[in-house]
Write a structure and sequence with these properties.
about 675 residues; 27 helices; about 0% strand; disordered N terminus
Length: about 675
Amino acid sequence: RLAPQRGTPEHTRGIQRHPEPERRSRAAAASTMAAGELSRLLDQDGDGAIGDEAAERMERAEIARAQAESDAAEGERRLQVARQQFAEYAQSKATEAAGLGSMIRDLLAACDGVGSAELTKKVLEIKETMDAAEAEARAMASDASKDAKKAAVDTGKDAAPMETANGAGGGALAAAAAADDLDDGAAEAMDEDGASAALHDAAADLDPSMNFVERAKYIPLRLDMDERKLLRLLEAALHVSEYTDKVDVLTFRSKTQRITKQLKEICAIMCGLVVATDYRAGQDLIKDKDFEHNAQFFQRIFEIGRRHKVMNPEKMRSEYGKMIYLLQDSQMSDVQELLNFKLVKPMRTAHALLAEKNGLAMLKDGLMHQATAEIMHEGKPRIQVQREIKAKEKAREHLSRRYSHADLSAEEILTVLYSISDNNAYLRFNRDPVDRMIDFLKRYFDPKTPEPGFSLGITMGMGGARLSHNHERQYTYVMQSMMLWREVSNDMFKLWYLAEGDLLREGGYYQLTNTGQGLNRVQSAPQTNKAIHQVLARCQAKLGHWVGSSVVHLGDHNVPNALMFIDKYTQVPRILNPVALVVQRVEELCEDDGLRQYVESTFGGVDECRKTILADFFRHAFDGSGADNFFDAGSCIDGRLTSAWNWCSKIEKKSYYPVFSLAGFTGFDGGDFRS
């Protein structure tokens, strides 16, 4: 206590004049209390079960209420999807009606003065009937679109823009899954020449310009040797962990019991990591339970694991899911209150390093493309490949010398360049298979006229198909689907970055729900949802005409959370790459006389064998199969991938499967490199 000074107000006399130490002492006291509570929970036997039967009954009632809310939300979501699909179906039929009306008017003009009066009269009657049908279809499409938008606004979600009758507007959302449920019946009466030309132009010109500043924001930094040691430690700890098996169950009798179990499992993993790194420090941690003292170590090691997984999707197949769910639980307010620190920190990216070290100007240098480009050897002489490698090395040396300074070393610049090169390598192995399949579609199939025996047309109920498309419509549907997959693969690092942001946001809420495929964490993903709709809108704007539904499932029973969304689309190259490799190797296989005789006698030749494989893939990997309703499968954005999975599961029954076996095919799931 300070002695009162002259002029000091009476009510402030005797008050401590240095509040900062007092605040620090209060924070330390709160931290000590949290540590004491955490230690008590970890030391107690069992999982924190409560004995109050009334509280247990209340908790069971709360679980039942939460499940009912989840079911109601899912029902609302299904209704919203049905409204959107009906609006898209009505719009597509209005477009078809307008096209038929145009054809009839052209026919009437051709008959004027040439045909008989009776023929002209009949055509006029058809025209009047068609005009009335077109007006009715336009009105129905307008009403359905308004209803879908109003329902989406009422539920707090943005409605997808509907395509206008002339093809302009906020995006092309043509025939919905409900439309594909019916047969083609009415003629496809749009300007098919223009649509076909736009399709091929978009396939060749969909990539945005090379922008290293934007790309670098989502490209993780390559791991150094010290980080790789910590990565091996983290993988080993997660490999033996049973975190999700113990936490994601419905047998807990209270929320307190589940939180206690979460804390015990999280702290057990953290203790194991510290003990394996520093035995003495691990002993102290187990004894004192002072996890906050090692906060930076935990943040670093988990960030290394996240960064490694993004750059190598084929690795940490099971470990990554456990790690993300563990970190997701650590961000809960109840767990944060006891841990008193965060396990999550932002991922280190190439852009973040350069921004921190004042080196962003390098990303705008014209040599960036040459310094990070993939050197492809196919079809090039050895001397040309060596020349390109030397030019790439010189570009790296020039950039490292030009932009290095006191804060940014040449080694750090090379790390950034290597990281961007890793991204280019990723695109080669994950995006290029889609490009090859698009090339096969354009090379072996005409968009309008099917070759006898190799039509892409499908009919609902035949061969497992759940859609009905003629050859021309199916060609467009397949092309659009693969172009969308290409864009998703191209933006995968960005989507993954945003998905982790949705999963690991502080205070994020999820609901453990039985989705029909076991217990899953259902959680909204606003950033990922916005990004995938931007990708979809970019494709639709390029193509102009869209076949099928534009519904994207995310945060519902089909795709429960952003982790499941990322997992779905990392399977695209696993599906397409084996097919592309087999098709490419058919000619190589036929260099053997016996195999050539087999191919010629069974299929008729090399090209016929390739077209047999491709025609079946383009038909039945995009036929709406994989589920028994149009909500879980069909022509929606995610249903296209579901159909491809369904085709993969039946590959052994195909007549051309021996060709796959001879080409070295073992399966669509490549597995981890360790297996």
